[in-house]
Amino acid sequence: MKKEMRYLVPGDYMADPAVHVFNDRLYIYPSHDWESGIEENDNGDHFDMKDYHVFSTDDVMQGEIIDHGLALQVADILWAGRQLWDCDVALKDGMYYMYFPLKDQNDIFRIGVAISNRPEGPFIPLPDPMRGSYSIDPAIFDNGDGEYYMYFGGLWGGQLQRYRDNKALECAVLPEGNEAALPARVAKLSSDMLQFAEEPRPVIILDEHGKPLTAGDNERRFFEASWMHKYNGKYYFSYSTGDTHRLCYAIGDNPYGPFTYQGVILTPVVGWTTHHAIAEFKGKWYLFHHDCVPSKGKTWLRSLKVCELEYDAQGRIITIDGQSSHALKQ
Ligand code: FUB
Hints:
Number of strands: 24
Bound molecules: beta-L-arabinofuranose
Oligomer: single chain
Shape: globular
CATH class: Mainly Beta
CATH architecture: 5 Propeller
Structural class: mainly beta
Largest sheet: 5 strands, antiparallel
Distance between the termini: 20 Å
CATH superfamily: Glycosyl hydrolase domain, family 43
């Protein structure tokens, strides 16, 4: 379905949105792309982001989008190497916790935590990454019962293929063909929100026959960009298929899954990566995502977009055409 789209930050390059409603206002936590001059490669070196800005609004499709300025930067993180990728933020007991993936000084992605007493930051980073953390794209889900879950992981440049059972491998191994696909991971957070409360578990996605998706099924299997939301009592795990450039989703009965594959949320956009957040605000559902139309296809200079998201009577998400960005609205 073609949709009316809005570019949210036309004056700058922002990507990988995480979105939450805090204190009746909608907050957007994107990655901040820039022209670093680093050549494009499969390792993602050209995504050399150095800081985050936070945005907020009280009207998603028409209202003013406020840029709250610098919220966190690589220069302030003691353990930093390079590359601040997709972050997310959770609220607990009046404090805001930002979770961010960053390569350490050995070029290994870890997940860090930074804290603020305001949703827009600035966020003060802890001196060390989370114990046992690895890979990228942390997405935090508040289950509404006092428990918070982190979904994370990403293939290729996201380094997930370097781990099995939460242990680093001697050499990276990417499964192929009929082997089980590499899953995202999920872990409950500790009550102080600063560590995993348990060993991360695999997020299993089943096909229509109840079999886990295979590595060769690259139009449906997980690649990166986890997101979790709840609709009509069901848990919707959504993600990017990476090299086939789709946003897909699977439904389960609890935060750990297993989840059963349902379909495509967004067909490929202009650009290589696709990444999103789904949120309800003032009675409507929205898909926040990015594309590379404004940068004329430069994959490392992405622009933040939003459109409405709809469900059918059975709770299935109605597929959105990723190329419907041509009805540009600013
Ligand atoms: O922004 C860098 C990476 O690109 C993100 O971590 C991935 O999800 C992809 O959007």
